[in-house]
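User: structure tokens for LRRNT domain-containing protein, please.
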Amino acid sequence: MYCDLLPVFFSSSFFSLLTKREFKRAARGTLPVKGNILNSLFTFSPETDVSSSQHQLVDSSSASGEKKTNEVQRTGQVSDTTTDTQSVMGRAEAVWVELNAVLERWAGAAGKLSTILKELKEEKKRLLDQGEEQKVKKKSEEEEEDEEEEEDDDDDEEEEEEEEEEEGEEEGKEEEGAEEEENEASNSTSTQDSLPEGCQVGESRVSCKQIGLSDLPVITNLEITILELPGNNLTSIPPSGFSGLPDLEELDLSLNKLDDSSFGLNLFMNQTKLKILKLDGNELTTVPHLPSSLEDLKINNNKIYQLASDSFKGLTNLKVLELAGNILYESSIAPWAFKPLKALKHLRLDKNRFSAIPVGLPPSIEELRLQENQIVEVQDRLLDKCVHLRVLDLSHNLLKENSIYPEAWIKLPKLETLDLSYNQMAVLPSDLPKTLRQLSLQHNHIHSIPPYSLSHLRPGLQTLHLSHNLLQEYGVLGKSFRGVYQSLVELHLDNNRFERVPHNMRHFKNLKVLRLDHNRISSVPVKSICKVQRTEDSPLSTVHLEYNYINVNKIPRAAFSCIRDSSGIILEPQTETQVNTVRSRELSVEILQPKLRSVFVSLCISAMISCHSLLLLLLNVCSLTAPSLALPFEQRGFWDFAMDGEVGDLKTVMMRDEEGSAMEELPPDVFLCPFGCQCQLSVVQCSDLSLIAVPKEIPKDTKLLDLQNNRITELKENDFKGLANLYALSLVNNMISKVHPRAFTPLLHLKKLYFSRNLLTVVPKNLPPSLVELRIHENRIKKVAEGTFSGLGSMNCIEMGGNPIQNSGFEPGAFKGLKLNYLRISESKLTGIPKDLPDSLHELHLDNNQIQAIELEDLSRYKHLYRLGLGFNHIRMIENGSLSYIPNLRELHLENNRLTRIPMGLADMKYLQVVYLHSNNISRVDVNDFCPRGFGMKRSFYNGISLYGNPVNYWEVQPATFRCVGDRLAIQPSYRLLLEPDLKRRCGPGARCFVMDRMKRTVLSQPCVYDQSTQ
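Assistant: Done. Predicted tokens:
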């Protein structure tokens, strides 16, 4: 019966109750409670009392709770009764017989276990003998054995558990990987299925570029980090359009049709990881509410016209901000607009309408782009807080050398790159930032470099660009480059008027690149570039002397002796050979026949000109030089258009291959160029030639025609015949008094007409309907007849100041049909604001006239005005309520008039930001003259209030008067150099100067005054 218990003892369910350690301890009789059954078995001996053994077996069986021990339990029950002792003893004897057999088997098992224990003990001793430290304290022999065995058992268990865990982890990873692959595949498939045709799906990117989307696509993949939707027709975005993309890091919405209403306050609520946002080429007028995680924001080419104090609220992580191609003025930027941008490094504000550098730029900025604006001055210390500024681009503006204040850059310790190209500099400016390494001054009017003007630069200038100026040898002296002889690496003097190599070129120690091409140099003397006695090679590796008048065969051998590699000396082609060729009667390009083309090919080979095609050679032969930009048009933007490539690329008229397969298809007039003019691409420059008439044979593909500074007296009917592609025409500074009614008829695509400084008495009739810009100032115009501008629906800008026109000279309906944005009638003889001007005007300039008063209805038509210029008039009175008709005004000029008080209504103009009231007769400033009484009524803070030159006791002005001024520097109660560049400040007899902030009043001790004494 008890043999039936053996399978139970050795079953997995039984041994699951005992660990290996417990099993071994049970064999030695040291296992408490849980192992009492095995204790009983392993400690049994034949000498043990039978009844005791029975009781132990019964108790053990009862404690184990096994279902198959019913017999033992019944034996235990019998032992508890005293009624039938004989029966009990008989049964016990039977049990003993069976149990004896069981114990014999267990004895064998116990013997084996004992053997194993002995082996383990010997192994342990061996390990101890090898140097294992004794960790067990002295105890009894049995305790030592227990501890040793327990440690061995624990190690075995841990190893087994670790193996099982590793196997489980590997299996789990495999399952997870399989699941991830399945999820990615399913997500990608589901995302692709939900997107419109033409979209591309990557691992974490969705790209739907230029596929004509009008609605935001539904994206169900939550793991998308890059979403590209440029070049579509999106006009709106649902409020929850991006709510399902919490991991989005980059979003491109450029080149769509999104306006301000498309960007709700909560549109990017879930985009806490968004770093890059591109909104270029949309229709935004303000900066939308954006997530604080942004690091790169591009809003170029929109219609943004102002930046409020909260425009960039919360964008403390923004590093790159681009706002190029908008409608921003310096007065349309609140003083604290950039204050939240603590981390900003790169700022683009180019292609806007700034006339000065905006205030309040963040101190962290490193790169500032302000090119292609209308900046006329750089004021003192305006950039003082930009101590990390490294790159400043002020190219394509209206800067002159004396419009940069002496302390403009004094606190810019890291400025290394300064671009002042395409401005109106006549002399290399002084007081340049001393840390400069790269300076660009190309395309100015510079004719001289003053001595020591670069000597203060430390550690020294490395690159200097002076191309396309008016430099001649007498304007560059030995001391002109003092201070940069050791540091300069690149010097660009090409496209100037040098007739010989400047003699100081050989003094440069580390110069590597020297450009003197496209000048009038006729010889290279032996000591002009290299020192004759120099014992080591010069660092100079590249010298450009092509397109001069040099006879290459007469250059002395020692002229370039210091240059190691002669391949860097570029001498050909020269201009003289080409001039002779184009003017030769025998090889006139006008009568060029196919048989003579080989002659030009031989010329190309003999002159060693690199020609890719015969056409390229002929273009080189016919064009004397590239058009000189040393004398740019007075109107900014004319030559910029040519340089931007809008006139067409040379490649479009070149042959498609080098074999000349298309030569027979060339138009016969492709090589025409008027005698004495310069023709390149689609630009024809015929300025400063004393022409008395428009030249003939102008190429029909001409887009820019420069005829300024000549003696032309009349425009005849056929002067511009065939010039249907002409884009811009400059007739500035001629003697034109007559214009044929059909002179402009052929000019079907003319956009810009510059007619200033002539002898016109009326505006020419029948101007091209395509005309966008007309500049006709400084003529003798006294009358603008009705219908003068009829049919000119595209006209946007008219400049007609400097004419002796009176109010009566404007007939009713003179401006009928025009949708002008800009009109200037300054320096005329107006006594009041003209009637019936276009009501679409954004800017109206009537400065330097004889206007005496502004009546109530004078401004009633001009509700869209942003700028109004009425300075330098005789205005004594502005009728109450007059300014209420121009509620959107941002900038008001009333300086140099005869006002005796602050005009009424300024406080009610919610958007007014700049007011010029200096040099009047104002003697009192009241507390509510500028700011409204109620809080929050004014939408924009003042950026500038100019009050100097008035008999005001500024210490009597209450501080609350300027409570709506954004910055104390915006208040100009004392002095400021504004207009005349030849004015200079000096201390002497005169009125005191005051500096006023918003809460304090301070009087300077020294009196200052402006005068016009000579420099």
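User: Anything notable?

Assistant: The two ends are 131 Å apart (CA to CA).
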